[in-house]
């Protein structure tokens, strides 16, 4: 799909439909990255649908408790729990998954919303560039580790569970560098400090969001046809949020900082409006589940993904990224290999 900047402007200035609603009684919903912005607003919408459990995953106990209080105050829902996970630390992710295995029960809706945007190269304690790890590798790790819980819930309820991965409209204007597209290990290249020059690091956020779409489509291709789980990517639109806070914390003005301020003033949605896209991806389309599988939700509708993703070149890169992702994550958790073997098929 060719999606121009004019299309983007038209969509941002269009009237959004009201938030989707569903009966979530008896369901467990997990929102990762829920203490601010669209994650918090999506959690409020889910709370109003009265799930049996709503778990919000945040980086710190203080932020989680503050979000918990706000959700209860604005919705009256008292079934919300705050759990801690730091996607910049693989050990925190595996510990969270272990806790969920013991205490979480079945999982019906997973929303992977946590992300960062950084203006320069930063390295995690695990040795990866921060945006690559938080936005893609750790999100993929947790998503895979929670597949058994999602599938179990789908089988018991006789309704497919949903895994929602938040992507971005920015993938529409990204073509990965030739060196990355042709690399046998594109993630290793993207994560190296040598590659992350100022020129390349400015593309990292849309690159990570493209990787999210690759993950959704590759996972969908490999899930067994009878598996009661739908994996969906979603573009929340351009919204006011704290996602770009690191840019605003810089003491000096820059062309990027000025451009972002102007764009926000002219066209940004509120966080609540953006959160409606996450909710749509999580609860809509249950009467035509096959269409949702591997789908890309944008502006409250399923749309075709970018031409690059659909191209032969995109398919080759998607498969290469998938194989490298699984190899990396097998080294992080010994549970990845059994999950891949038991729940996915080779293609």
Structural notes for this entry:
- With 347 residues, the protein is α/β, with parallel strands linked by helices.
- It has one domain: Rossmann fold.
- The protein is built from 17 helices and eight strands.
- The protein has an eight-stranded mixed sheet, with helices on both faces.
- Helix 2 crosses helix 3, helix 2 crosses helix 13 and helix 10 crosses helix 16.
- The protein starts with a helix and ends with a helix.
- The model has no long low-confidence stretch (mean pLDDT 93).
- One of its GO terms (molecular function) is oxidoreductase activity.
- Keywords: Oxidoreductase.
- Pfam families: adh_short.
- InterPro entries: NAD(P)-bd_dom_sf, SDR_fam.
Write a compact overview of the structure shown:
With 347 residues, this protein is an alpha/beta fold. It has helices at 5-12, 37-48, 61-75, 90-103, 130-145, 147-157, 178-181, 186-191, 198-201, 204-222, 245-249, 255-267, 271-283, 289-292, 307-310, 312-332, 336-343, and strands at residues 28-32, 53-58, 80-84, 109-112, 161-166, 229-235, 296-298, 302-303. The protein is 51% helix and 11% strand.
């Amino acid at each position: 799909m060719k999606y121009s900047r004019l299309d983007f402007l038209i969509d941002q200035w269009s009237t959004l439909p009201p938030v989707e609603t569903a009966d979530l009684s008896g369901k467990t919903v997990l929102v990762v990255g829920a203490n601010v912005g669209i994650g918090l607003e999506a959690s409020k919408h889910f709370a109003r649908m009265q799930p049996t459990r709503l778990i919000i995953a945040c980086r710190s106990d203080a932020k989680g408790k503050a979000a918990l209080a706000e959700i209860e105050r604005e919705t009256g829902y008292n079934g919300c729990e705050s759990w801690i996970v730091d996607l910049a630390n693989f050990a925190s992710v595996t510990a969270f998954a272990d806790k969920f295995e013991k205490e979480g029960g079945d999982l019906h809706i997973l929303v992977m919303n946590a992300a960062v945007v950084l203006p320069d190269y930063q390295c995690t304690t695990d040795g990866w560039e921060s945006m690559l790890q938080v936005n893609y590798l750790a999100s993929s790790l947790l998503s895979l580790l929670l597949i058994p819980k999602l599938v179990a819930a789908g089988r018991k309820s006789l309704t497919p569970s949903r895994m929602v991965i938040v992507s971005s409209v920015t993938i529409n204007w990204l073509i990965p560098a030739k060196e990355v597209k042709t690399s046998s290990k594109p993630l290793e290249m993207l994560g190296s400090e040598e590659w992350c020059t100022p020129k390349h690091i400015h593309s990292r956020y849309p690159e990570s969001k493209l990787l999210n779409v690759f993950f959704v489509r590759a996972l969908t291709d490999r899930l067994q046809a009878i598996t009661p789980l739908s994996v969906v990517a979603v573009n929340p639109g351009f919204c006011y949020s704290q996602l770009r806070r690191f840019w605003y914390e810089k003491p000096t003005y820059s062309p990027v900082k000025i451009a972002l301020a102007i764009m926000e003033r002219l066209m940004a949605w509120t966080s609540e409006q953006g959160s409606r896209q996450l909710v749509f991806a999580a609860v809509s389309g249950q009467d035509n589940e096959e269409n949702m599988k591997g789908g890309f939700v944008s502006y409250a509708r399923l749309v075709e993904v970018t031409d690059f993703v659909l191209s032969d070149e995109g398919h080759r890169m998607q498969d290469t990224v998938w194989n490298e992702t699984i190899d990396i994550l097998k080294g992080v958790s010994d549970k990845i290999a059994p999950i891949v073997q038991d729940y996915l098929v080779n293609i």
